[in-house]
């Protein structure tokens, strides 16, 4: 039988590890299920590519290529603006080189199999315009939830209909009117870009959302059984939606599982802990806490009496995502010594409460890892029984595919919305209460939620464990042959195959 012709597509991401990693995982799955595809991933870059992304490149299949666009120097971006703004401006500054790259891939003279479609990150949706100019099919690959996509697609309408700040609304927001089964969101839980409508951040997002009209469809990193309400509501709004997830890093694979920080000793430490006894604590690839909050968290974990494995990052009193665009988190770890007894390590952890390291060591209660850990491997380990997470969508999905219940501690971006979905919608996590909005979570409250989640006798924790187990099974079914996400991906493939024929 003749081999089907090669179909070549381009996939464009943004300069942020978690988005790049998600797109690479998606591409790997596409190539695994549909081997006649070839994918060229194009990554705009600020300064230098993230170390964590570089460490994933060695494990890519031969039909997956990665091109880094010429880097945008950091000093060309406004220094004090939030990472979300810097990322979007970096993408805009990269448009000329992106256009060149796509034109070259499209040209029949320079490639034996010119690209026929472009798949773009929502924050790189300038690529949709270029795709139209080049007469290519174009999709958005949406790494977060369908609920967040619903918000983005409905933002131009919400902007017209609501005149005050969203955070001042007295009633929770129905993202799509009349869709009562969708979770509603209080204004302060909307993404950080929406918290100040006079900000550049809001304006950039709004302009971006208006550009989604150009897309031929949306590939969303979720699965039908988990977000049925949002998915069907968007389909009723006539958006062409393909729930193809959960696309998540897997503990058995390479990538972040064996990337920076894998020698930290924490997996070895997990090996000697009882089943489901350890709470894993991490705030993603760049989340940071204030000094006061780091102190309360340390004392709260200790007070809970539960075992924990904490990926500690130096505090920042200025912003919750101070480390997001920096490579420090990973390069730190390449020459890192996580030996809790070493003077170097103690010096680097001086911001922790006095005597904390010594106490948790003598009680054998905890393990501290500096800045970066092999998260996917930790979550898939049998000793891990809970995840205190910042609710980044990749982290949330990694927890779901491993069946690990969560403590939702959102920091920035759309993480508050994810926290609402996880705790109020899916009911697979607990959310500690802070003192006021953006206030500090006190140690007693931390100890309470940790116990409620981890202790076997706790009714709330038992219910959460049951529901996340059901969700884990649902995720597995969706990704199997004949499962909802596998079928949705086949529909995308069919659209691309039939394009132009
Ligand atoms: N990650 C990791 N080790 C760490 C911190 C993060 O491997 O110490 C990975 C994690 O597994 C996930 C990604 O980085 O795949 C974080 O993505 P997420 O969307 O959760 O959050 P973000 O980094 O965008 O805030």
Which helices and strands occur, and which strands form pairs?
Layout: E1 7-12, H1 17-33, E2 37-43, H2 51-56, E3 64-68, H3 83-93, H4 95-106, E4 115-120, H5 126-133, E5 137-142, H6 146-161, H7 200-210, E6 217-220, H8 228-236, E7 241-243, H9 266-271, E8 278-282, H10 291-304, E9 307-312, H11 328-334, H12 343-348, H13 356-362, E10 366-370, H14 375-379, E11 384-389, H15 393-402, E12 406-408, H16 415-425, E13 429-430, H17 443-454, H18 459-479, H19 484-498
Parallel strand pairs: 1-2, 1-4, 2-3, 4-5, 5-6, 6-7, 8-9, 8-11, 9-10, 11-12, 12-13
Helix pairs in contact: 4-5, 6-7, 10-17
The structure holds uridine-5'-diphosphate (UDP).
Residues 18, 21, 249, 256, 282, 284-287, 311, 372-373, 375-376, 392-395, 398 line the site of uridine-5'-diphosphate (UDP).
Sketch the major β-sheet: 7 strands, parallel
**Helix tally?**
19
Report the CATH superfamily of the largest domain: Glycogen Phosphorylase B
Gap from first CA to last CA: 21 Å
Question: Helices and strands: which structural class?
Answer: alpha/beta
Task: Give the low-confidence spans.
Answer: 253-263, 328-336
List how many beta strands DSSP finds.
13
Beta-strand portion reads 5-15%
CATH topology of the largest domain: Rossmann fold
The CATH architecture of the largest domain is: 3-Layer(aba) Sandwich
Rg, Å, rounded: 22 Å
The average pLDDT value, as a whole number, equals 91
Which outline best applies? globular
- Name the ligand types: uridine-5'-diphosphate
Write down the domain tally: 2
Indicate the percent of residues in helices: 40-55%
Give the class-level CATH name of the largest domain.
Answer: Alpha Beta
Numbering strands along the chain, what is their spatial order in the largest sheet? Answer: 3-2-1-4-5-6-7
Organism: Senna tora
Keywords: Glycosyltransferase, Transferase
Protein name: Glycosyltransferase
Family: Belongs to the UDP-glycosyltransferase family.
């Amino acid at each position: 039988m003749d081999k089907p012709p090669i179909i070549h597509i381009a996939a464009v991401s943004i300069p942020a590890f978690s988005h790049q990693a998600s797109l690479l995982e998606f591409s790997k799955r596409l190539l695994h299920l549909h081997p006649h595809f070839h994918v060229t991933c194009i990554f705009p870059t600020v300064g230098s590519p993230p170390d964590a992304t570089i460490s994933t490149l060695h494990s890519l299949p031969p039909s997956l290529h990665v091109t880094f666009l010429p880097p945008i120097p950091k000093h060309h971006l406004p220094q004090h603006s939030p990472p979300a703004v810097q990322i979007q401006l970096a993408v805009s500054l990269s448009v000329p080189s992106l256009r060149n790259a796509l034109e070259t891939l499209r040209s029949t003279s320079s490639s034996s199999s010119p690209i026929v479609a472009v798949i773009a990150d929502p924050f790189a949706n300038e690529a949709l315009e270029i795709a139209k100019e080049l007469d290519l099919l174009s999709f958005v690959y949406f790494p977060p939830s369908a609920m967040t996509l619903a918000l983005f697609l409905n933002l131009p309408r919400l902007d017209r209909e609501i005149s005050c700040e969203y955070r001042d609304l007295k009633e929770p927001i129905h993202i799509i009117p009349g869709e009562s089964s969708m979770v509603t969101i209080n204004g302060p839980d909307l993404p950080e870009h929406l918290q100040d409508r006079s900000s550049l951040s809001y304006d950039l997002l709004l302009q971006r959302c208006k550009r989604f009209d150009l897309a031929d469809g949306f590939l969303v990193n979720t699965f039908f059984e988990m977000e049925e309400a949002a998915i069907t509501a968007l389909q009723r709004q006539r958006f062409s939606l393909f729930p193809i997830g959960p696309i998540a890093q897997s503990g058995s694979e390479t990538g972040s599982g064996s990337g920076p920080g894998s020698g930290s000793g924490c997996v070895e430490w997990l090996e000697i802990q009882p089943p489901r006894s350890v709470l894993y604590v991490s705030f993603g690839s760049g989340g940071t806490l204030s000094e006061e909050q780091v102190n309360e968290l340390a004392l709260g974990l200790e007070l809970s009496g539960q075992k924990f494995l904490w990926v500690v990052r130096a505090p920042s009193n200025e912003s919750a995502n101070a480390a997001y665009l920096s490579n420090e988190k990973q390069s730190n770890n390449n020459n890192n010594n996580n030996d809790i007894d070493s003077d170097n390590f103690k010096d680097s952890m001086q911001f922790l409460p006095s005597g904390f390291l010594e106490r948790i060591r003598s009680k054998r209660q905890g393990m501290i890892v500096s800045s970066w850990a092999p998260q996917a491997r930790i979550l898939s380990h049998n000793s891990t029984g809970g995840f205190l997470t910042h609710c980044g969508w990749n982290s949330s999905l990694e927890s779901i595919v491993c069946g690990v219940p969560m403590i939702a501690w959102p920091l920035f971006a759309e993480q508050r919305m994810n926290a609402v979905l996880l705790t109020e919608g899916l009911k697979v996590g607990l959310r500690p209460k802070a003192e006021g909005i953006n206030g500090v979570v006190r140690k007693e409250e931390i100890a309470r939620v940790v116990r409620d989640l981890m202790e076997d006798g706790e009714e709330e924790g038992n219910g959460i464990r049951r529901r996340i187990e059901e969700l884990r099974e649902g995720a597995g079914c969706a990704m199997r042959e004949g499962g909802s996400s596998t079928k949705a991906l086949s529909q995308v493939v069919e659209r691309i195959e039939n394009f132009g024929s």
